[in-house]
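Priority: medium. Attachment 1 of 2:
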């Protein structure tokens, strides 16, 4: 997370590509869950900022 006014890094997470964030809405973060089959999904913002990417929920794949 970057302060748009100063460019300062406010928060960061471990470099892990098992969840790629796209948008934060409320207490959820939506993005891509990278597993055997990659697809869209979500994770709680708390789990995201704590690096608990294994808690991401992948939307149903066809």
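Attachment 2 of 2:
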């Amino acid at each position: 997370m970057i302060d748009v006014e100063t460019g300062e890094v406010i928060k960061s997470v471990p470099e892990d590509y098992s969840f790629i964030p796209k948008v934060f809405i409320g207490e959820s973060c939506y993005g891509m869950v990278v597993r055997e089959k990659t697809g869209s999904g979500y994770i709680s913002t708390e789990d995201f900022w704590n690096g608990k990417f294994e808690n991401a929920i992948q939307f149903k794949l066809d």
